[in-house]
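Before a colleague's protein record goes any further, I have to sign it off. I want your independent view on whether this chain really folds as the C-alpha cells say. The record follows directly below this note.
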Amino acid sequence: MTSEEEPKPPEHVVPNADTEVGNNSANEISNTEEKTVPADEVSNKPPDDDGGSNEVVPQSDPKTAGPISKLGGLGWLVRVGVNTTATVAAAALILFLIGVAQRTGWVTVNGFGGQEQSGGEVASSQPKRYICPMMCTPPSTEPGRCPVCAMELVEATSSGGGDGKSVTIEAAARRLVGIQTAMSKMGHVTRTIRTIGSIDFDESRLSTISAYIDGRLEEMYADYVGVRVSEGDDLALIYSPQLYSAQTEFITSLDGGSVGRFDIGQSDLGAMAQENLSELGMTTEQIEELRKTRKPQSRIRIKSPQSGTVIEKTAVEGDYVKTGQKLYRIADLTSVWLMLDLFPDDASAVRFGQEVEAEIQSMQGEVFTGRVAFIDPTVNPKTRTVQVRVEVMNFDGKLRPGDYATARITVPAIPADLVYDPALAGKYISPMHPQVIREEPGPCPLCGMDLVPTSQLGFSPEPLPEQRVVTVPRDSVLMAGDNGVIYVETEPGRFEIRRVSVGPMTQKEAVIIEGLAPGETIATGGNFLIDSQMQLAGNPSLMDPSRAPSFAPGPLELPENDPVVLAGDAGAQFDRAYQAYFDIQTAMAADTTPPPVALNTLLDGLARLEMFGDVPDEAQKQFGRARRAAVRMDGPLDPARAAFRAVSHAMLRAAVVARGPKTSEALTQYYCPMVPGNGGDWMQPGGDLANPYWGAEMLTCGEVVRDLAVKAEVPSIAEIPQLEAL
C-alpha cells in the first residue's frame, strides 16, 4: 500500500464520528487482531476485564440505549475523579521529596550536590573553619585535635545574625543562660594602687651617740633598750684623763700666762682651747659652766641630742671605750616611714605629697594616713620595682618599725599633668617633710628648708573639670592577650561584637579608650556563651577579632578642655604635623593616596612631639598612637582610609589637650555616618567640607561636630621664628 492510499475501515466498524472511544493510553486498541462485530451484538457485549477500553461502542438509539448511556457516563466520571486524585497525590509526594532533599543538602538552588548560597555569597568559596569546643585556640582551617585540651575540633557553621558580626539569641535561651546587660557611661574614674610595705624608722629623726674621747664608762643612765629619753637628758658618764688635761689648758688660757714659747693669754690660743673641749664632747653649757667655776673635771656626761626611744645599746658600765665607739641609737617614733614597692607604671602615676592610706597587719581595721615623701628615680634591677617612701605621723606610738602594712593609693584612671587635692590646693609644702603644709610661705620647722607652692608639684589650685571617660562593668570585657571585645545589644536579642581598646581597670569598672560610645547596651553576664556562639557561627570572636568593628557609632566625643597653646619648637612642630595631616585629608578627598612628602612629614612631626618636654603627657600618648596608625597609610587608598580614622581619632584627642599657634585659630571636627564600621571623624582647618573616606563618591557627606578653635588669645606667629623656617 502506497502512502497516497487511504486505508479502508474494517467491516462492521463504526466510523470515529459515530463512536465513543475509551480512555486507554493514546486511544490505541490493545488487541493485535481486529475483530468485526455485528452491529446488533455491539451494544450487548459485556465489557472486558480491563474496563473495555479497547471497545468501539456505536452510538445507540436513544430509545433503546437509555440505561446503558447512564451507566457509561457514571463510569467516566469515576475514572476522571480517580485519575485527578492520583495526580494531586503524586505532585504532593514530589514536592515533599524535593524539600527533604534540599534540607539534607542533596539538592540545592544550584542543582544536585551544588554549592549553597547564604546572603548572596557562595558558602563554599570560603575555607572550612574548625574550632575547639572549649575555645582554647583560634579557629583552624584543618580538622584534628586541639593542641591544648586534645578535644576533637568541630566544624564551624553559619548561623546567628547572618551579617558576619552578630548573633541573635531568643528570649527563652537568653533567660536560660543568664545573659544580663548594662549601660556604658561617661564619667570620672579613679583607680586604686594596692601594694604591701613595712614600717621603718624615720632616718631624719634617728641619732647615734658615740664616745668623743677614750675612757671608762662609769655610769649608763639609759641602761636598757626601749627607754624613752628627752633632749638634753644624761645618757652616760665617762671618766677620761684626756678630758681633764684639756680642761686644765682651757682654764690656764683664761688666767693668762705662758706655756713654753706660747703666750696662753693670746685670744687665738684661748679659742683653740675652747674648740678642743667641744671636740671632746663638751656642750656649750658645760664649757660655760667650766668658765665660771674654773674647776676641771675628769668625768664628762653624755647627753641626748634629741627626744626619742633608745632602740640600741652597745656597751655596759665599766667598759673602756675608744673615740668614736657607738654607745646608743635613739629614734624619734613620732614620725615613721612606710616603705612601699610599686611597679614602674604605678609609680609613674604617684606624685610627691600625695595621700596614702595604710592598714597595719597587727591592727586590722584601723587606717593610718600619710603622704609620699620620696619616689625612687631608679628601678631596682633585682625586683623590677620602684621604692616609694611615705611619711606617717605616729604620735600615739601605735606604729612599730618592722611591722607589715597594706597600702592604697588613689590616682586618676587616666594620667594627667595636674590633679586636684583639696588639702593641698593653694598651699605650701616642705620639700623634705610632706606632712608640713602651710597656708603661707616660710621655712620648714623640721629641716629649715623653704616651703614650696604645691602647684610646682602638679597640684591644681582650683578644682579641675572632670576628666570624662567611657566606663563599663569590668566583667563585660573579654580579654585574651592584647585582644579586647565587648558584645553590644543593638536590637533586642541581637548581640554585635565590638573590638575595643581597654584602659585601666578598677575592681568594678574598666575604662574603654576606643570602640564604645556612652549609652550603649552591653552584655555583662553570659558574654562567654555569646562569644562561643560567634565562634560556632564562623564569625569574629575573642580568639579572632580581626574582622570585628573597632569604632563606636556616632561622632567621637571629646572632653570640654581648654588646650594649652604651645610656643617655640613644640608649637611649630605641632602646626607642622597637623598641616601634613590636612594635606593627606585633601588628597584622599580627591581619591588619591596620601602624598609621600606629607606622610613623611606627619610621621616625623609626631615622633618629635613625643620627645618635647613641654608637650602634655596625654597629648604625647595620643601622638604615639597616631604615629603607629599613620605607618599603615603608606599603600593603596582603601587601607589608607581605614588607618586614617585611627589617626584622626588620636590627633583629635591630642588637640583638646594642646595646640599650636596656627591650629588654635581654626580647627573643625567633622563626622560622616556612612563610613563603614560605625562612621568616621576627621579634621579640617576650614573651607568646604571634603570627605576623605568617600572622595568623589560622597564628597559632601558629613556634618560639623564641633568648632575646636581656641577662644583665648594665642601668641603671635611672628613671635615664633621657627615657623618661618618651616
About this structure: The two ends are 112 Å apart (CA to CA). Residues 166-188+466-536 form a domain with the conserved putative lor/sdh protein from methanococcus maripaludis s2 fold fold (CATH 2.40.420.20). Residues 1-71, 100-124, 714-726 have pLDDT under 50 and may be disordered.
